Amino acid sequence: MLPEEIAAARQRRYNGTIVWLTKPNPDLMIMRVKPDFPIPRHRAGQYCSLGLGNWEPRTPGCQPEDMKPGDESRLVRRAYSLSHPILNDFGELLDPTQADYIEFYITLVREGSDPAKPPALTPRLFLLKEGDRLNIGDRITGHYTLEHVKPTDTVLLLGTGTGEAPHNYMTWELLRGGHTGKVLNACCVRFKRDLGYIETHRQLVKCSGNYQYLPLTTREAETIGQKVYIQDLITSGQMEELLKEPLDPVRTHVFLCGNPKMIGVQVKDPATGARVYPQPTGVIEILEQRGFQADVAAAKIRGNVHFEEYW
């Protein structure tokens, strides 16, 4: 595309401005986008789309892209769960009137899982800077919310990587709403540098008596020989030790977001058609053996284990 064509396409297709951006590490980004339109009413845990034109440059070192004729004029979009800063600059829970932006927590995907489908969006997003424009969806939706949580319930927010994003927003919504039950937020990543919100959560722990944050790393020198995954927290009893109470299906809600292997949603056996748990064992299987019930969207069953598969 010619420069004047790109300028016209940006003017026509982009409807949001990056007002703040930081990178905890080169492959991890927290970004705030101010839409040109009023932010739609929504709840913590929901998502909307971000998009950029294929005409935008891509981050070097990513899987090569082979576009067909005409593809360069198209807009590529992807849905992202909304994250949240949680605290303001004074260390207080953010007042919703102070935010005229939407926050996103994004990891750079350098290689696609399918060799024929290289990542299209994040290699472009990671070249953006404050003041740049992009496309943002005008609809925020999703069923991964705190809708059925009672004020006295214990809430477990269990995530991997940037699957922590909706849990940041949920943490804010719970504490801002005066939730009195225990809230435990655990996030499992490879390295400490992948915990983009760790200082915010540490600060929050100091001022919230019913909130706990548990960062887990699997590839640091001190943890490489004693890896602890989300599943291990439950099967070892560590989760109950931290909570100082048993995992009670009657008054506990569990939220899972991130790696599908951690979540472990039942799949259909191609040979028998029966619903079976995947391997390795995921959190859903572990909890359902203890009396919990995972949501079943197709049957409109709302349980006490809720999940959002982040990739």
Structure, described:
This protein folds into 2 domains: 134 residues, Translation factors (Elongation Factor Tu (Ef-tu), domain 3); 156 residues, Nucleotide-binding domain of ferredoxin-NADP reductase (FNR) module (Rossmann fold), CATH 3.40.50.80. Helices cover 19% and strands 25% of the residues. It is an alpha/beta fold. The strands form 3 sheets. The chain has a 6-stranded antiparallel beta sheet. Strands 9-8-7-10-13 form a 5-stranded parallel beta sheet. Strands 11-12 form a two-stranded antiparallel sheet.
The biggest beta sheet reads: 6 strands, antiparallel
Cα shape: globular
CATH topology of the largest domain: Rossmann fold
Through-space gap between termini: 31 Å
Low-confidence stretches: none
Please count the helical segments: 8
What is the architecture of the largest domain at the second tier of CATH?
3-Layer(aba) Sandwich
CATH class of the largest domain: Alpha Beta
- Strand proportion, as a percent range, falls in 25-35%
* Spatial strand order of the main sheet: 4-3-6-1-2-5
User: What pattern of helices and strands is seen along the backbone?
Assistant: HEEEEEHEEHEHEHHEHEEHE
Task: Look at the helices and sheets and give the structural class.
Answer: alpha/beta
For the record, the count of structural domains works out to 2
